[in-house]
Design brief:
This protein has 173 residues and is mostly beta strands. It is built from one helix and ten strands, in the order E-E-E-E-E-E-H-E-E-E-E.
Length: 173
């Protein structure tokens, strides 16, 4: 645990206009990978606009290791089909967490930072890092790559845990 900065909870909320990989629809699920960690949501049957509302939690050992979200279509007799992927860039979120640490006088809903979609990220829409009830979260609408259509809505939330390095030690040797 002493090598860990903390935990990152990723709420995989829903998919929008996902590609159909079966005859009429798909049976989508999401896999989040970071280094050796691999987490999976539940599968939603016959739905190209699934509601997962699953919470997946990663241990953050190196905040610079990329986090990849991949959507798959569950198949019974063949290998599951990939339905696109996106990279989750947590660097702006980590920077906002460091900035907001120790500050308690923000009103609920205050946007600490807004990130615009661009060629360096997979955002489909502006993403805001929000202060709410002492927690800092980031909602993201990710545009899937390597597929004809599809977006996934997620939310990031940092979890401090006792015995971890904490974010303030990032970059120190």
């Amino acid at each position: 645990m002493e090598d860990t900065f903390g935990l990152l909870r990723i709420r995989v909320r829903r998919g929008i206009n996902l590609a159909s990989r079966d005859t009429v629809s798909s049976d989508p699920y999401v896999v989040i990978t970071m280094g050796q960690q691999k987490l999976k949501t539940c599968m939603v049957k016959n739905n190209c606009n699934p509601e997962w509302n699953d919470e997946l939690t990663l241990s953050i050992i190196d905040p610079n290791v990329p986090i990849t979200l991949t959507v798959y279509d569950k198949d019974t007799f063949t290998v599951d089909d990939q339905m696109g992927n996106a990279e989750i860039d947590i660097k702006p979120y980590i920077a906002a967490l460091k900035m907001g640490k120790g500050l308690q006088n923000f009103s609920n809903g205050y946007a600490l930072k807004k990130i615009q979609p661009g060629s360096t990220n997979c955002l489909a829409d502006e993403s805001s890092i929000i202060w709410n009830n002492g927690k800092i979260t980031q909602d993201m609408r990710l545009k899937l790559r390597n597929v004809e259509s599809g977006e996934v809505i997620i939310q990031l939330e940092w979890i401090e845990i006792p015995g971890c390095k904490g974010l303030e030690s990032e970059g120190k040797v």
